[in-house]
């Protein structure tokens, strides 16, 4: 068994552990069209990924934010099984990290119920614990608090941990919390915008992520 580079690995969920990107973008499109009567470009939707729904929709239209969240959530859950996809090899990577003694978990801006539903949909509910969800903090990524909550749950220090995420806010939260950061390019962010946040690594495949975590 290879020696882990970091003894603690915390993952983002959407676009990192599970391919929810098509589902999220379609949910944004439905909610904005239904509530506000106009469309949202996919590029804009991708920039929203990683933040809480209420923060995103409050910025978009504070007066209708609650309606937008409710409409998004209802459509998202109704279409989750149809649109969500696993990332091939993620289950093996999580199993290998656990076998190597790495403490792993998820810190996400998603609501706890939705996050657990997502993990069940890709059959990872027993593979990785959900350490921090939207309800667990009053502030959210790019604020460091969700990652600090996850560290406390693992009884870990920032200096021994890395956060793996697909969005700019993930990397910003990692750096604010004092964690190393690895960016993955199979989710919301482009390689260029992720690299601009100066993560330790930008990886383009799960095989590359494995090599980074289990060198």
Compact overview of the structure:
This protein is an alpha/beta fold and 215 residues long. It contains ten helices and eight strands.
Series of secondary-structure elements, N-terminal to C-terminal: EEHHHHEHEHEHEHEHEH
- Write down the overall mean pLDDT: 95
Number of helices: 10
Trace the largest sheet across and list its strands. 5-4-1-6-7-8
Structural class: alpha/beta
Strand content: 5-15%
Kindly report how far apart the N and C termini lie.
10 Å
Rg to the nearest angstrom? 16 Å
Description of the structure:
The protein has 215 residues and is an alpha/beta fold. The protein folds into 2 domains: 8-19 and 85-213, 3-Layer(aba) Sandwich (Rossmann fold), CATH 3.40.50; 21-83, DNA polymerase, domain 1, CATH 1.10.150. It is 48% helix and 13% strand. It is built from 10 helices and 8 strands. The chain has helices spanning 21-36, 42-48, 53-61, 65-83, 90-99, 112-121, 145-153, 168-177, 191-195, 206-213; strands at 8-11, 18-19, 85-86, 103-107, 130-132, 161-165, 180-184, 201-203. The protein has a 6-stranded parallel sheet, sandwiched between helices. Strands 2-3 form a two-stranded antiparallel ribbon. Helix 1 packs antiparallel against helix 4 (65-83). The radius of gyration is 16 Å and the shape is globular.
